[in-house]
Structure prediction request, 331 residues.
Amino acid sequence: MVMATRMREAAGSTLGDGVLNVNKARGWTSHDVVAKLRGMLGGPKIGHAGTLDPAATGVLPVLVGRGTRIAEYLMDWDKEYRAVLRLGETTDTQDATGTVLTQHATTGLTEDAIRGAIARFQGRVAQVPPMYSAVKVGGVPLYKAARAGRTVPRESREVTVHGIDVLGVVGRDVSLRIVCSKGTYIRTLCADIGEALGVGGHLLALERRRVGPLTLERALSVEDVGSRLLAGLLVEDLMPLDTALQALPALVVDEATAGRVLHGVPAPARSVRWEGGGSGAELPAEQPVRLKDPWGRLLAIGMVPAGGLRPERSVESSELAVSILKVLADA
Prediction:
């Protein structure tokens, strides 16, 4: 109790808003991590982006304070995994936590055949979401139907596997490095590879090594978070919101407009310019953008109007305005 109180006092109001790079341990749910950190940090809101299954380990982006407002913009980050595919066995969950459904001998498979099959899963890939997943069909998560013994028809989705490399083959276990887009189920990828080889397969082990710019080498364990919090150093590990949102174009509003933006008032096109004073191509309609004040402080996430926008050519009489989606600073 004393230690928890000291941690909350250390956090105080100094930690700020941003993203923590946390290394989730095996056996923890993503919710477990959030709940533990919420107890440590006390005041700030805490959330996460990109769920990891309990059996998986690795990078979990934890959102702190106003960081919880930007989760949807971080979900587009690509991801890198190390996975072990076990050939010759299928399970009802497509991973090692499930019940074995079928078994096939793998003695006839050559390493060349395995590598050839795996290579075909690079690029755009159609996946049917697994029954044991949080995907909702008719408003109900699939895993609830699966636990009730029901199989629900579901449509395939396209995901992108940017790269899939075989790191090694030992017996029936294949070690893989996978770089992929959001929404990719690695256990489904393993099951589909096993099916393509005619012997079935499932995900034996999974480690997420990167989510966007967050790498496993720089990730903190939950224990690390606590010790750095007590030492007053955790703020150094918090990725600022502006850094986390770097994929969004940045526009600067004038001083008079900045105050209104913080109250959710749209920014007239004539009041915005490119950050750094440079020029750029026209921003497409409904493009999310970062809005900053003249001193570089991130104010909000805005949206380009339906007519598009070329900031350096905005005219005084223009009625176009950048609407405000998320306010990210104090008024």
User: Anything to note?
Assistant: Residues 248-327 form a domain with the Archaeosine Trna-guanine Transglycosylase; Chain: A, domain 4 fold (CATH 2.30.130.10). The mean pLDDT is 89.
